[in-house]
Amino acid sequence: MLVFEAAERSPDKVLKLKFEALRDFDPDERRIVEGVLDSLLVQHQAKRLFGQTTPPANAATSVPQSRNGKRRASR
Predict the structure, then answer these.
(1) Which residues contact 47 (CB under 8 A, 6 or more apart)?
(2) In this predicted model, what pLDDT tens digit does every residue of 26-55 receive, in sequence order?
(3) What are the residue ranges of helices labelled H in 1-75?
(4) How many angstroms separate the CA atoms of 26 and 71, rounded?
(5) 43 CA to centre of own chain
(6) Dist. CA 19–CA 49, nearest whole Å
(7) Which of 12, 45, 50, 63 has the highest local Cβ count within 10 Å?
(8) What is each CA distance from 27 to 22, 31, 41, 44, in whole angstroms?
(9) Is the distance from CB of 46 to CB of 52 less than 8 angstroms?
(10) CA 65, CA 73: separation in Å to the nearest integer?
(11) HSE-up of 69 (CA within 13 Å, CB side)?
């Protein structure tokens, strides 16, 4: 369940226009948009509740590189 303030119940004009444009999407495209939106809402709620930011998507898999662009060995 999402919790909203009274003023948060309706989208602003820009978002409203974008949501209206989604009517033209086919069902598969709409499911993708809804999934992305759901993910962003969950991420936003987690930040608000726990005061945490999520690490960049590649933070756990990135390998340090030297100045010349070659990977450095882990120590």
Answers:
(1) 53, 54
(2) 999 999 999 999 999 999 999 999 986 556
(3) 13-21, 27-50
(4) 44
(5) 6
(6) 26
(7) 45
(8) 10, 6, 21, 26
(9) yes
(10) 9
(11) 0
Residue with tokens 């662009």: 69
Task: Give the whole-number percent of the chain exceeding pLDDT 90.
Answer: 47
Supply the pTM of this predicted model: 0.51
**What tokens were used for 9?**
């119940």
Closest CA to 3 of 34, 44, 39: 44
Q: What is the Cα–Cα distance from 67 to 51, expressed in whole angstroms?
A: 34
Q: Are 54 and 43 in contact (CB under 8 A)?
A: yes
